[in-house]
Amino acid sequence: MTTVRLPLFPLNSVLFPGLVLPLNVFEERYRAMMRDLLKSPEDEQRQFAVVAIRDGSEVAPSAPGLPDPTARPEQGPAAGFGADPVRAFHEVGCVADAATIREREDGGFEVLATGTTRVRLRSVDASGAYLTAELEPLPEEPGDEAGALAEGVLRAFRSYQKRLAGARERSLSTGTELPDEPSVVSYLVAAAAVLDTPTKQRLLEAPDTAARLRDELELLRSETAIIRNLPSLPATDLTRGATSLN
């Protein structure tokens, strides 16, 4: 089994291969990560792994809180993730390639990264300034009838977009061209659909592209039917979701 070791950036969201991830980095553990990434040669990829948080806090508490208002906030690379950090994260994540890392005057960083490949979390090391992880790359197998399924998902996604735009009382741009490569379609739809984190995580973990597309086809049809029957649903209810501060 081939594994790689990379810095670990836990988030309350799921990153998919091919999708862009903007980050506003302000916690010291992640500042240290970005400083180290900047030390790598410019001709090398500056990579870290993103995993969705199963149980824990994306941002570590920085002040006394409940239930004990006098308790000192937890410190360190695993702050907010418990005694065994690996249990706090979903098992499958995505490698992110940081194209831009820009340091601000306040010492924080603005980062623009892109998801590349899926990885399985094998272990987490909390001995340094930030978490690192041993990761097993996961191949993307096409599965059976991926091409035909991708066509069906694209049709269902266009219908879903129209219903969603109508519920939001917004116009839908029809000039946007969507990809036709099945794996790209599967990841784009997974990222673009208004779904909760557990559902997006399930799509990321799909055994192959065809399985992901089958799941998406059912989800899109179900979500489209729900939106059709809720024409007065406020846009804020459709778009409500966690925002990454880091």
Please tell me about this protein's structure:
This is Lon N-terminal domain-containing protein. It comes from Streptomyces longispororuber. By secondary structure, the protein is an alpha+beta fold. The chain has 6 helices and 6 strands, in the order ββαββββααααα. The chain has a 5-stranded mixed barrel with strand order 1-3-4-5-6. α2 packs parallel to α5. The longest helix is centred in the middle third of the chain and has 22 residues. The chain is elongated. The chain starts with a strand and ends in a 7-residue tail after the last helix.
Concise overview:
The chain is of the alpha+beta class and 246 residues long.
Approximate shape: elongated
Number of helical stretches of at least 4 residues: 6
Report the count of strand segments. 6
Radius of gyration, taken over Cα atoms and rounded to an integer in Å: 19 Å
Strand content: 15-25%
- Average pLDDT value? 86
The largest beta-sheet arranges its strands as 1-3-4-5-6
Low-confidence stretches: 171-175, 233-243
Question: What level of helicity do the residues show?
Answer: 25-40%
Distance between the termini: 32 Å
Q: What class would the helix/strand composition place it in?
A: alpha+beta
- Most strands sheet: 5 strands, mixed, barrel
Listing every helix as H and every strand as E from the N terminus to the C terminus, the arrangement reads EEHEEEEHHHHH
Organism: Streptomyces longispororuber
Protein name: Lon N-terminal domain-containing protein
Pfam families: LON_substr_bdg
